[in-house]
Amino acid sequence: MWGSVTRAVRTPSRLDEDIQLTDFAITTSLPIYLRVTGDGHFKSEQLIAYEAGYRTLVAAHGYVDLAVFYNNYNDLYSFQVGTPFLEADPAPAHAIIPILTRNGVHGSTSGFEVAPDWKPTSWWELRASYAYLNMNVSTKPGSNDPSSVPAYEGSSPRHEVVVQSFLNLPKKLEFGQTFRYVSALRAQGVKDYETADVRFGWHLSRELELSVGGQNLLQPHHAAFGGDPGGPVGIKRSVYAKLVWRQGAN
């Protein structure tokens, strides 16, 4: 068994404190712009994390790892919509809606991961893992941030599954397969996906190893995360070959 309690902070960067970014918003009789401004009032984000785990032998050559966690976040990055004002320079006259960097979000995450590991024989190993994440995030009193909470809650997968098989074959050959499932990222417009990787390796000598493999093989491409700017970033199906030489390998 194991456990831990951890405190962490993220200190403000120059971008957090000093950003000045103006972007066009909408055309009306009076053009309107949004201006993101760091005015020196952003402070450190804070985390207190509680974790515990247990590993046990459940059968001959079979182990299970279980880990649980609870994270308490405070003063997370947010935006505060300020009072609009008029600006005449540069012409033509236009309205500015100020967006100030603030620490207006707090909340928690909790979840667990279970990971069995089993060797049916001396030459075959099976591994798997399932991870679950629950997020409970909200704005703090006084914050009028319209977008940060959905962005936080919709940018991490709730479910992740991995299943792996490793075969040590005769003639110093090895064959590995991995299946992966990741649930959707709603805030980034990324759907859930499942895919698989394979790898075939040959130990030519004690120092030299040749391998070929394929990644993301179940579809030509899939979206993995959102792009900024632009839409989701796609990961393509791919194949590779690799030659590794280890000097002084045992």
Short description:
With 250 residues, the chain is mainly beta. The protein has helices spanning 14-18, 148-153, and strands at residues 2-10, 20-26, 32-37, 45-59, 62-81, 85-87, 94-121, 124-139, 159-169, 173-182, 193-203, 208-215, 221-226, 232-236, 238-245.
Describe the structure.
The protein has 250 residues and is mainly beta. The chain has helices at residues 14-18, 148-153; strands at 2-10, 20-26, 32-37, 45-59, 62-81, 85-87, 94-121, 124-139, 159-169, 173-182, 193-203, 208-215, 221-226, 232-236, 238-245. A hairpin with a 5-residue loop joins strand 13 and strand 14 (232-236). The longest helix is centred in the middle third of the chain and has 6 residues, at 148-153. It starts with a strand and ends in a 5-residue tail after the last strand.
- Name the structural class: mainly beta
Element string (H = helix, E = strand): EHEEEEEEEHEEEEEEE
Q: Can you give the helix content as a percent range?
A: under 10%
Please, what is the average pLDDT?
A: 93
β content, as a range? over 45%
State the end-to-end distance.
33 Å
- What is the number of helices? 2
Spans with pLDDT under 50 lasting ≥5 residues? none
Please give the number of β-strands. Answer: 15
Radius of gyration (CA) equals 25 Å
Specify the biggest β-sheet.
13 strands, mixed
Shape: elongated
Secondary-structure blueprint:
Blueprint: E1 2-10, H1 14-18, E2 20-26, E3 32-37, E4 45-59, E5 62-81, E6 85-87, E7 94-121, E8 124-139, H2 148-153, E9 159-169, E10 173-182, E11 193-203, E12 208-215, E13 221-226, E14 232-236, E15 238-245
Parallel strand pairs: 3-7
Antiparallel strand pairs: 1-4, 2-3, 4-5, 5-7, 6-7, 7-8, 8-9, 9-10, 10-11, 11-12, 12-15, 13-14
